[in-house]
From TrEMBL:
Protein source organism: Marilutibacter maris
Listed transmembrane segments: none
Membrane topology label: Multi-pass membrane protein
Protein name stated in the entry: Lipopolysaccharide biosynthesis protein
Essential cofactor(s): Mg(2+)
Length: 335
């Protein structure tokens, strides 16, 4: 890692840490607190909105990248869409908004980025990914931000992996995301002193989705390996959502039916966050080692990885009594 990268990482780490400290003071002063409840995974009132520090760090990285390396339509669209997702999340953290309104903003932000990729002569598949990846991951990170340290630690790992493989100004954006999450984590690891809120979870998911789309445009088929470190979140969020839809439940409302929540009820936040981090690190390691292999090998590896994750999801859900919110025992918050 160059001295420039080290300096950038320290800058964004500092923004994440100091910004989270300030956000916590603001949240306490404004009484922006997540209260405990049967559909929540904490047992003490906790400030929210700390993810604004991560948002600021990423926008600073965009500004630096624009001035140092030259901007472009895709970077401008990314910054605009990222800010839109963060803004609707920030408002929602202060005054709950309807799911439909939030989804509409997510769609608009993703469409804006996809249009910029299309204008830059992106291949049709890349344009489709540029729309779907930010939209899907915005909501996946929101769904999975349910226990201490989980969403930020996953973003740190995936952001770090993306920083290693992108060109142009994008490695700086990915580095900012990872380093700012590292600065946020001391306040969010068990027992959390602040949550990232919708401002953080949505913006992180959007950024990772957009960066994955850029990786697809720059790296072609090899970018499919990025699906490996994303597997823990995609499988848990996707299968849990599908099950709730099939049961005709109000899938857009808060619940405690994810596999990570079922596991946390038995083993505590710390163990589950660590377990998910190890799984994601394993996926990242395989992605780095095998990224040059041919398409058929990529497809077979992804199939095996995701099938294994799906089987594990089912085992966690049905062997540990995660079927309904009502059956949830008390949370082991401090472990």
């Amino acid at each position: 890692m160059s001295l420039t990268a080290v300096g950038g990482a320290l800058l964004f780490l500092s923004i994440g840490f100091a910004g989270t400290w300030l956000a916590r003071r603001y949240a306490l002063a404004r009484r922006l607190l997540d209260e405990p409840g049967e559909r929540r995974s904490h047992n003490v009132a906790t400030p929210r909105g700390g993810g604004i520090a991560i948002v600021v760090a990423v926008l600073v990285a965009v500004a630096i990248g624009w001035s140092a390396l030259g901007g472009g339509l895709a970077l401008a669209a990314f910054a605009t869409g990222f800010a839109l997702v963060a803004a609707i999340g920030w408002v929602d953290d202060h005054r709950p908004l309807s799911p439909a309104l939030r989804l509409l903003v997510h769609v608009l932000a993703s469409a804006l980025f996809a249009a910029a990729v299309h204008a830059g002569s992106g291949a049709p598949a890349t344009v489709a990914i540029a729309f779907l990846a930010p939209l899907v991951l915005t909501n996946v990170w929101n769904f999975m931000d349910g226990i201490d340290g989980l969403a930020a630690s996953q973003a740190l790992i995936v952001g770090g992996l993306l920083a290693l493989g992108l060109g142009g100004p994008w490695p700086l954006v990915a580095l900012a995301l990872a380093a700012a999450c590292a600065g946020f984590l001391p306040f969010n690891l068990p027992t959390a002193r602040i949550f990232m809120g919708d401002v953080g979870s949505g913006a992180i998911g959007y950024a990772i989705g957009a960066l994955c789309a850029i990786a697809t445009g720059q790296g072609g088929t090899a970018a499919a390996w990025l699906l490996l470190p994303l597997a823990p979140f995609l499988v848990d969020a996707g299968l849990t959502l599908a099950r709730r839809v099939l049961r005709r439940e109000r899938w857009w409302t808060a619940h405690t039916q994810h596999a990570y929540q079922a596991c946390a009820r038995r083993h505590g936040h710390r163990a589950v966050t660590l377990g998910y981090a190890l799984a994601t690190l394993a996926g990242a390691a395989v992605a780095l080692i095998m990224k040059e292999h041919v398409t058929t090998f990529i497809a077979s590896s992804l199939f095996t990885w995701y099938m294994s994750a799906a089987i594990l999801w089912g085992w966690l859900q049905y062997s540990r009594g995660a079927g309904t919110d009502a059956a949830a025992p008390s949370w082991k918050e401090n472990e």
